[in-house]
Write a structure and sequence with these properties.
By secondary structure, this protein is α/β, with parallel strands linked by helices. It is built from 30 helices and twelve strands. The chain starts with a helix and ends with a helix. One of its GO terms (cellular component) is GPI-anchor transamidase complex.
């Protein structure tokens, strides 16, 4: 018979032996502990690597290529001929022959355009719109409520603009897709460039009305830009996608605003029979081209084509659309293609030195192994960096660079093409060649888009341009942002856990909270609640600062200078009031404040500040990656290096001076108005500097509903105030 006591011995012995075994933590836990324990060197390496990765982006740029094989640019011979150029010149002369200067004569242009559209056999109608109200209102930041109310209350001919819209129904299509051509013109002051743009637009439209290969409808929008190019296109798109049946938002009896002349009576009767006040539509827009002729009055070897692609909040069209335009312009029409460039960087000495260093390193690597050669000439590097900086800036700004931005708001791929001749527009001899090249370019782009069986999707939507034919994809440039932001959570964890942030503790360079007892006190105490309260109060202040411009705009007889001064004074006053309500910024709750808590206070506050900065940058990268990238370049070094001034007095002289200099420099560069003033002085000098420049810049951001305004006021500015808070912290 078995002894029951013996049966219980083995399990007990097994349990006791297993409990004594030491289990190693998982690899990811050990990696986290290693990063936190070496957070100083990790932060330094990641931050330096992040900036270096941005500097080498022009080297990593790839040549553009057409991803969608169906586009087949240049596969067919152009049909745009000299006869179409003659039609364009004829219309230019008719437009310039009209008398301008009165409200009645301004309405003659839509009638002239409509008559020509009717002659080509296409459908035509008029679209009425009003000027938009670019006034900041916090409740309407991402909506169009203010614009809609203004339209409803204003219906006179003198306060409206009139777009003329022509539609060609594709003979091989089913009416479900369309290609939009937009030609803006200023009816209040018609210039030769506007007349040439309309002439070119009509000649292309007339040609497309005769072809048999169209599979998508063609919509030509002659957009009156008296109130701005964007306003006219945006109003038409709003009515196109959001029809309103109970008010005449898009209808206008245009003939009541036109002047009837005897010699136009017969022609007007024919136009009225074919012209409709009913808003007509086609199918889903596959792509849109905004093209206009400009006179830059600069001598060049070739006719120039400038491409503008940036839309609201950093949105970009599919790269294939830019690629086919570049291919046709360069390889078929012999045009010189340009994109926006930061000209102030083209003559930068330090940038040229960096380019020469990278070129020398590339040559040395190539001598060791020819396959290791990676660099580009220094001149190409400088030009690529200047173009890259411009591309990042305009994407980060969040303001459309043309009326094509209105299409991108509806997820329609669109770009603006500015065509300028190599000689002055006043030279009539060069008009024919110039118009022929422009017409064949637009025809080629329409042919390529017409070949698509679906929307653009093969190529990139997230990219930076370093030249018209080179780009940096999101998979490359996001590495720099990841390297810049990654030290923030590591540093926050290291600071809060109480792990020592340095190789040595000599001279009390960092707060001594590394022992087990002090770390336990710091973690178990309620000091983190005080830090969280301070961070919450500062971000609440940021929300109030965000809403102040709405109240300032109500002040009578204000200027940019007075508005900026009022904004600054009110912001400082509200910050002081919030500090008084919530407690002094450096106050401590409780009856007893141990010395070790005082030394740990700023550390915990910095940990919470760094964590909030990481969260803010991460959220902004989802909305506008370029804005988050540029913001990280200023915010991350400032958050990493900030130290209390009194704490620097306990360090060695050389280290204290270096740390103090870095903190003060980053505090100045991290303040948005100071950064803007420094950039303006470096590019324009002191002559054009004004106190209201920052107000004007911010006003343009909220007028265009740019999310960059939210980032600056809700993320960047509160983090800057918190860093100043830490810098002035009493130990």
């Amino acid at each position: 018979m078995e002894n029951p006591s013996n049966t219980n011995e083995n399990p007990n012995s097994t349990t006791s032996s297993s409990s004594t075994e030491k289990r190693k933590p998982r690899l990811i836990v050990r990696l986290g502990i290693f990063l936190i324990s070496h957070s100083t060197i990790v932060s330094l390496l990641c931050c330096v690597a992040g900036f270096l990765s941005l500097l080498i982006l022009p080297i990593l740029a790839k040549n553009t290529y057409i991803s969608e094989n169906a586009l087949m640019p240049g596969s067919a011979n152009p049909m745009f001929s000299g006869q179409d150029v003659l039609e364009a010149n004829k219309m230019v002369k008719e437009i310039l022959g009209l008398g301008f200067g009165s409200e009645e004569s301004r309405m003659e242009i839509p009638r002239l355009i409509a008559r020509h559209i009717v002659d080509s056999g296409a459908e035509v109608y008029y679209h009425k719109f009003h000027s938009e109200i670019n006034q900041f209102h916090p409740l309407n930041f991402f909506s169009d409520i203010a614009y809609t109310e203004f339209i409803h209350d204003n219906n006179s001919c003198s306060s409206t603009g009139v777009n003329t819209v022509g539609i060609i129904r594709a003979p091989r299509g089913d009416g479900k897709e369309a290609i939009v051509l937009v030609t803006p013109y200023n009816s209040g002051k018609i210039e030769l460039s506007d007349a040439l743009s309309l002439g070119l637009g009509y000649s292309i439209f007339s040609l497309l009305s005769k072809v048999t290969w169209l599979a998508k409808d063609i919509v030509w929008l002659a957009a009156e830009s008296r109130y701005g190019e964007y306003a006219s296109v945006s109003a038409w798109l709003r009515d196109y996608h959001n029809p309103v049946f109970f008010r005449s938002s898009g209808k206008l009896q245009v003939d009541t605003c036109l002047v009837d002349h005897v010699h136009h009576e017969r022609q007007d009767s024919q136009v009225r029979g074919r012209t409709s006040d009913v808003f007509r539509r086609s199918g889903t827009m596959a792509a849109a081209l905004v093209f206009k002729i400009v006179d830059k009055q600069e001598e060049a070897e070739k006719d120039t084509l400038s491409i503008h692609a940036e839309a609201s909040n950093g949105q970009m069209p599919n790269l294939d659309l830019i690629n086919i335009v570049h291919y046709l312009a360069v390889h078929r029409q012999g045009l010189r293609v340009k994109v926006e460039t930061a000209f102030s960087l083209l003559h930068s000495a330090w940038l040229r030195v960096v380019g020469e260093m990278l070129e020398w390193v590339s040559i040395m690597a190539g001598n060791l192994n020819p396959q290791w050669r990676f660099g580009i000439p220094a001149a190409d590097y400088v030009e690529g960096t200047a173009t890259l900086a411009s591309s990042m800036y305009y994407q980060a700004l969040g303001v459309p660079t043309g009326s094509h931005g209105a299409f991108r708001d509806y997820q329609i791929d669109a770009i603006t093409l500015e065509i300028s001749p190599k000689i002055s527009l006043k030279n009539e001899i060069a008009h024919s060649t110039f118009l022929l090249r422009g017409g064949r370019l637009i025809e080629g782009v329409v042919r390529s888009v017409n070949n698509l069986l679906e929307k653009f999707h093969q190529s990139f939507f997230l990219y930076f341009l370093t030249s018209p034919n080179k780009f940096v994809s999101v998979g490359v440039y996001m590495i720099g942002f990841a390297l810049l932001v990654s030290p923030l959570p590591v540093l926050a964890a290291a600071l809060y856990s109480g792990i020592k942030l340095g190789n040595t503790d000599k001279g009390n360079q960092t707060p001594s909270i590394n022992s087990h007892s002090n770390m336990g006190l710091a973690v178990r105490s309620w000091r983190w609640l005080h830090a969280a309260k301070v961070v919450f109060v500062i971000h609440l202040w940021g929300v109030i600062v965000l809403l102040l411009p709405h109240l300032i705009n109500q002040l009578p007889q204000r200027t940019s200078e007075t508005s900026m001064l009022t904004w600054t004074v009110l912001s400082i006053f509200i910050l002081v009031i919030l500090y008084q309500i919530s407690g002094a910024p450096h106050s401590h709750s409780g009856n007893v404040t141990p010395t070790q808590y005082q030394s740990a206070d700023w550390v915990i506050l910095k940990a919470v500040t760094v964590a909030s900065a990481a969260i803010g940058l991460g959220l902004m990268s989802i909305i506008n990656f370029a804005a988050a990238q540029i913001g990280a370049m200023f915010l991350v070094p400032m958050c990493l290096i900030v130290h209390p001034l009194k704490h620097m007095g306990q360090m060695k002289v050389l280290k204290a001076v270096l740390l103090l200099t870095c903190n003060l420099a980053l505090a100045i560069l991290g303040f948005p108005p100071a950064t803007l003033f420094i950039l303006k002085v470096s590019s324009e000098g002191l002559g054009g500097l004004s106190l209201g420049d920052f107000w004007d810049w911010m006003e343009s951001l909220w007028a265009w509903n740019s999310a960059t305004y939210l980032y600056l006021v809700l993320v960047h500015l509160p983090c800057w105030v918190l860093c100043i808070h830490i810098l002035l912290h009493p130990l």
